Amino acid sequence: MKILFIGGTGTISSAITRRAAQMGWEIYLLNRGSRKSEFKGSEYTHIQCDIFTDNQNETKEKLIKALGKAKQFDVVCQFFAFTPEHTERDFEIFNNLCGQYIFISSASAYQKPLSSYLITESTPLSNPLWQYSRNKIACEEFLMAKYREEGFPITIVRPSHTYDERSVPLGVHGKNGSWQVLKRMLDGKPVIIHGDGSSLWTLTHNSDFALAFARLMGNIHAIGESVHITSDESVTWNQIYKVIADALGVELKAVHIASEFLDECSQGQYDFKGSLLGDKANTVVFDNSKLKRLAQGFTAKVRVDEGLKMTVANVLANKDLQIEDPEFDQWCDRIIAAVEAAKKSFK
User: Fold this and answer.
1) Which of 139, 193, 326, 327 is the most exposed place for a label (fewest CB within 10 A)?
2) CATH number of the domain that 28 lies in?
């Protein structure tokens, strides 16, 4: 198959690109060329452009030229579209140029608050707390309309919290990622867990995600469908942070703080209204029966504790993944001090 990846160097897309190479597929990578690519070799064709700002006709000519004698890509995978304008432009370019167009949406698009703890693909899409999610919903609506009206071969994939070996998945962290929280643990400092830490969350390793995703590519039964790809395993945030502390070989010193309070105290510095109130503060348990049907019985293999330990070990072994965030560190100290002072005032 001829596969076009728009983007291809992120947490999800890099794993899928590697999986596609293992399958022996012919891979085309379209990106701006701003990030050094790990994908080199005859199986990869690199197409450099910004699909959302470069001339639309010139972009299409580049794609057709790269295809050579082939009339279209078998699959186009869009990892980099975040607004309806992005998908509208994609439709103009790829209508009649692909056999399947896979749009990466987000499981954060499911309704908040949930009317049922168990999420299926028929769970309503509504997130008044996060613009990112509302934009993804609008993208989905546009693409599904094009499928119904013009037969555009759309498949919508909704990831939840997918992680890899480069960053430890956390609920509360700063703009530079998760390292500062790990550093706080190593330094014996308390770390913030949103809420009481008992809400359920689902983490999916990107290698598992890629395996399921590959089974949707070129799959005639996936055309016109929306499907989430997640693990079947649900764990609490307390468990997640405990596993991380154990992997670091330190005691977990957790301070539980209400998500609403964290949002109010962030003063716009951190997007906790979206990332917490609109996402991680909610219990999410996924029904993956539709995925199992479409992806021939797929089941995630990487258990949370095993995946987290591998990621922590990799981050500890690679200095370039240890990006400090002193501003976030100071913010944590202030919030924790305020909470502890409030406790003491009632004694």
Assistant:
1) 326
2) 3.40.50.720
